Amino acid sequence: MIRICFHGVESAGKSTLAARLGLPWVPEFGRSYCETHGTDLTMEDLLAIAEGQDMAMRKAAEAKPAVLILDTDPLMTAAWARMLFGTVPRQLMSYAKAEHYLLFAPDVAWVADGTRFFGGEGERARFAAICQDILVEAKLPFETVTGEWAERERQVRAHIANWANAAGTC
Q: Which terminal residue of the chain, N or C, has fewer Cβ atoms less than 10 Å from its own Cβ?
């Protein structure tokens, strides 16, 4: 099994693509958490979100699919912690990591949906830099996904095919 994590700023197509690929995927726990508890987040909320995401990922992995798409992971919660509070608790960096990361660039329009925070150009650029920094700090290689929607999907499908072929899972 290979796990491929979609990482990056809000409103960059991660959830939409995860749902469209036709592969087993783990939705973003933080979205449902915020829809239930609101968006006035504390660090304790972020720790609960990371734990919930990790639990959902572990449960999905029990089925042992050849490829499992993660529509975020606790490292993305670490990026949120840095963006919101300027610090990252060590435990957010200690969860199991995916085998592959796709970093979604903020080069498509931001769409407000009631749970998104950072739509301004400066905020979005800062958050994008933090998202990338978290992957670098964790010493994880990643590929960047850019361009309009059809191009993003093409890139994502190509990366998944390459990684699955290399792992002998397809």
A: C
